[in-house]
Amino acid sequence: MPAQEENKVVTLTHASGSSVKVSLFGATVISWIAKDEERLFVSQNAILDGSKAIRGGIPLVFPIFGTKSHIALPQHGFARNSYWDYLGVLTDNDEVKVRFGLKDNQLTKEQRQAWSHSFRLTYTVTLTATSLKTFLTVKNEDSDTMEFNTLLHTYFRVKDVAQVSVLGLKSLTFADKVANGETSIESRDAVTVAGEVDRVYQNAPDHLQVNTDNQGHQILIHKEGMKDTVVWNPWIEKAKGMGDFGDEEYHNMICVEVGSVAQWVQLKSGQTWQGGQTLAVV
Ligand code: TA6
Q: Which residues are recorded as binding substrate (predicted)?
């Protein structure tokens, strides 16, 4: 069976041996095994009972990134804190594709009060031998224009973040959240981590490369419809401040997150927006 749902987790398996697991809570990808290796990081302290967004994998950020003073939603919005419907298998040949859905009428009263638009989200997850594609479609079912942010908050698993580099961000303007949101220009060919990093790179190229170690292992990111890219590692102090994250786990992860977060996405009534990423192991 290419796709099986059990205990609110959908597991996709591919003939090559690759697999992916998606929790219905947040439609959060919580595992991606390709070429016999787990490629995503999920904290050993992650809370998996639906009481809090899952710390790791690919949390789905919608309709806001961070917090917005005029929108009373928790950080990163409600998509990653809601139970999605599993809509079944779409294709099962050399790729396995499944779909998940979230509609406005599935939100809590508080969430609807904070963000009252009528909408339908559809999230497709597609697995091949060496790639994982995650795409979001937003349908505005409202009578007026909707504005939103969205982002795939991908946690990559690494052996030692000191060996990691992200290529493709040179010359981009970024907002540095570690420096009170000050904007600068990236001067490096390879972005590395030797302390807390929390940067929103604006108008990033659609192809990025994550060197997950210094032995030539890479994950290629191809984003579509998503304008920006966030790079995040909490490092020592922030790691200690997260109850669902081990104090030393910052050594074993890097977030490279494609999204449209620097500006609002404007979606007219009845219109559909889509965006996402394809991750490929080399
Ligand atoms: O994407 C980076 C970021 O916005 C950081 O500022 C940090 O807050 C991280 O997301 C984790 O946020 P969370 O709400 O999942 O603890």
A: 55, 75, 80
